Each structure stands twice: as C-alpha cells, then as structure tokens.
Predict the structure of SlyB protein.
Amino acid sequence: MKFSHKASLLALLSIGSLSGCSAFRSDANSSNPVVAEQARRVNDLEREVKDQDRIVDSEKAKLKSLKYQLKSARAELKARKL
C-alpha cells in the first residue's frame, strides 16, 4: 500500500510540475478525499516555502545592513585613533 501511495504522490507531483500550480488548487476541490487532502498539503507546503523565502530575503537584508554598519564603525574607530 505504501508503494502505491508513493507512486501516486510522485505521479501527482509530476503532473503538477508540468501543468502548474493551478492543477493543485483545482485538485483541492476533488471529490476524491485523498487527492483533495494531498492537494491541500501541496498548497500549504508551497505557501510555507514562499514564506520562508521572504524571511530569508529579509534576514539577508539585515545581514547586509549589519555588515555595512560594522564596516562604518571600524572606519570611524580607525579615524578616531589618528
């Protein structure tokens, strides 16, 4: 049973990658509860990935800002020593 579940999941993901995300959204309303649940899970995971991408981008911007502040602070320290 597990093998067939994995195979059907792989087939679902393959079909989705070929036809786009809209297939998963329409599958969420499927009359087949297994398909509908898996489509909702895919949508949830896609949303989580997008959220994490935004967080990573935000953290990268913070890191860049901190590096700039550090560089400026070092330059100011060097100037004050002179």
Remarks:
- The chain has a mean pLDDT of 83.
